[in-house]
Amino acid sequence: MKWIQQALWACACVTSLPVQAAPPKSVQGLVTQVTDGDSVWLTPPGKPPLEVRLRDIDAPESCQPWGAEARQALADLVLNKVATLQVSGRDSYGRTVGALSIDDLNVSRHLVENGHAWSVRTRWDQGPLVKQEKMARALSRGLHGSPGAIQPKDFRTRHGACAPGQAPTSQSAPVDLPQRVSAAPASTFRCDGRTHCSQMSSCSEARYFLANCPGVKMDGDRDGIPCEDQHCR
Question: Where are the domains of the chain?
Fold first, then answer.
């Protein structure tokens, strides 16, 4: 009877041990496109490109003041460079979420430190990079250099989402309120590796892919109008 009790006790000890989480998956590749201030495309060698959402930050919307500057800052930092991504998971749009680094430089931290993004807010606090954000605000860096800068979630609440293809607005230029997106926005289109007109189902879809997705082959004469023989006549 005693040995049974000892076996049960040992089993209880084993099952009570904390389960070790699997280490984050590391992916290395070339940054082939910068979509906006916190989204890029990473292409691992010999594999399809990954649409990546940088973790821990929230950059201005593309049509929001400082949206153009934030995207340019990210492009200057990572475009056409080899980067390492520590994968955390996926977001609601199917993008891969993770921490991107160039050599030993944490890209998200660098962007917040220089005023090109906010520390992402959680339900309970101001996020993991709040110290860097406060320092950037105190030094009036980047988007904090002008009064009235608001976080992207507040911008969307006040003005709605940016219309597809809407040009970014510089921080110093007059701000036109973006058009509100209807119940069937072009965000229903997602970059998924298709590159040819024969794979498109409409002109709207072709225009979205040409404007937002890497490696497309839909505008042979480079006039900005895709798939003229098939969809955009």
Answer: 25-159, 187-233
**Tokens 């993770």 appear where?**
98
Say if residues 111 and 74 touch (Cβ distance below 8 Å): yes
DSSP 8-state class, residue 201 = S
DSSP line for 3-29: HHHHHHHHHHHHHHSPPPPPPPEEEEE
Q: Which pLDDT tens digit goes with each residue over 146-170?
A: 888 899 888 888 888 787 666 555 4
| Residue 9, Ramachandran bin (φ over 0: left; ψ between -120 and 50: alpha; else beta) | alpha
Could you please state the CATH topology (level 3) that the domain comprising 25-159 is classified under. OB fold (Dihydrolipoamide Acetyltransferase, E2P) (2.40.50)
Q: State pTM to two decimals.
A: 0.64
The residue count for the chain: 233
The stretch 89-93 carries a mean pLDDT of 90
